[in-house]
Design brief:
- The structure is a single chain.
- This protein has 295 residues and is α/β, with parallel strands linked by helices.
- Helix content is 48%, strand content 12%.
- An eight-stranded parallel barrel has the order 1-2-3-4-5-6-7-8, surrounded by ten helices.
- Helix 6 links the parallel strand 4 and strand 5.
- Helix 2 crosses helix 4, helix 5 packs parallel to helix 6 and helix 6 runs parallel beside helix 7.
Length: 295
Amino acid sequence: LIDQFDRAAALRAALARNEPVLVAGAHDGLTARLAEEAGFTAVWASGLEISTARGLPDVSLLGLAEFVDAGETIASAVTIPVIADCDTGFGGDMNAAYTVLRYEAAGVAAVCIEDKAFPKRNSFLDDGHDLLSTAAFARKIRMAKGAQTHAEMLVIARTEALVCARPMAEALDRCHAYVDAGADAVLIHSKSHTPEEVLEFLSRWKRRAPVFIVPTTYASLTAEQAYKGGAAAIIYANQGMRASIAATRRMWARVVKEGTTLVIENEIASVSDVFALSGLDSWLAREQAVIVREP
Ligand code: SPV
Ligand code: MG
């Protein structure tokens, strides 16, 4: 396992550079490797992806142990920093503290905790969202920061204020309070179909900590525009999974229709590509090194 503290330091350094930090969503070793291969700076261990990959909705059904296991799998598969979507921190203040300890041990560079009440639901669901008070979530962030054992690890405080149709001033106040409580960065989430509200947040944010954004519904905002507007990092949270769903569905429909896989053979990854992505070469080399050394 590559030292997560080096990776946490690398993520801090990337956030301090004069360019947007691009982050791709993943849910396992393979999807994380595809993100690394594409050149992303970090991986987002997405709650939506991890839940969906298990055939479950993103409504707080999976627990800390299952999410940590996914985070550890992802961190083991790549050398870039992993940012874990930790929802509410899996319960109350003590759960948030324990979440940080578990993710540190799992090799994850940063945890992101949001200000919704447990059990949370995915932000793109119309209703069922319940926000903690600013003071209550600031306390949770303080607990999380107090628990970390290594200085480089990041705690990202995510506000769902805009998702919950609260005023812009409240979203800003919340994020300022979370930074005062020790958050290393904030994440402003929005389900608006245009980037205006996020851009307004960014223009009014005093740049006291890096801001992460998740332009899923407002995909027209480019990374360049977001960075110029004041965002430090852009998370493409679920497009990888959505791409594979679309491609797999299209491919299987053709196979069922044609009664052969020959029609899609040239469009799918080769088995040798699969071997390469699995890291087979390094394992064969490991075996070879032992054989060569034998008398
Ligand atoms: C996730 O990827 O699980 C996220 C981002 O939290 S979102 O689905 O946009 O809420
Ligand atoms: Mg999530």
